C-alpha cells in the first residue's frame, strides 16, 4: 500500500471533521489488542465471604470453624 492510498473512504454522505475524527478514533481503539486487567490483591475480608473447601460443612466443630479466620 502506498502512502497516498487512503486506509478507508466514505462512500455515502458528507461527514464533518468531528465525525471523521470519531471514526478514526474508534478504528484505532478496536484495532488494539485488549489489555489484561491488572491483578487485584485479595484481602482477608473478601476471602471470608467465600466458602472454603477446608472448612467442615457438617459435623463436630463445623459451627465454630465457620466463624474462625482461615
From TrEMBL:
Residues 37-70 are annotated as: Disordered. It comes from the Bacteria. Coiled coil: none annotated. Residues 49-62 have a biased composition (Low complexity). One of its GO terms (molecular function) is propionyl-CoA carboxylase activity. This is Acyl-CoA carboxylase epsilon subunit.
Amino acid at each position: 500500500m502506498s502512502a497516498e492510498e487512503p486506509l478507508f473512504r466514505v462512500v455515502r454522505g458528507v461527514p464533518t471533521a468531528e465525525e471523521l475524527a470519531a471514526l478514526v478514533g474508534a478504528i484505532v481503539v478496536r484495532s488494539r489488542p485488549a489489555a489484561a486487567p491488572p491483578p487485584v490483591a485479595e484481602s482477608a475480608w473478601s476471602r471470608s465471604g467465600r466458602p472454603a473447601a477446608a472448612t467442615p460443612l457438617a459435623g463436630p466443630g463445623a459451627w465454630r470453624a465457620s466463624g474462625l479466620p482461615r
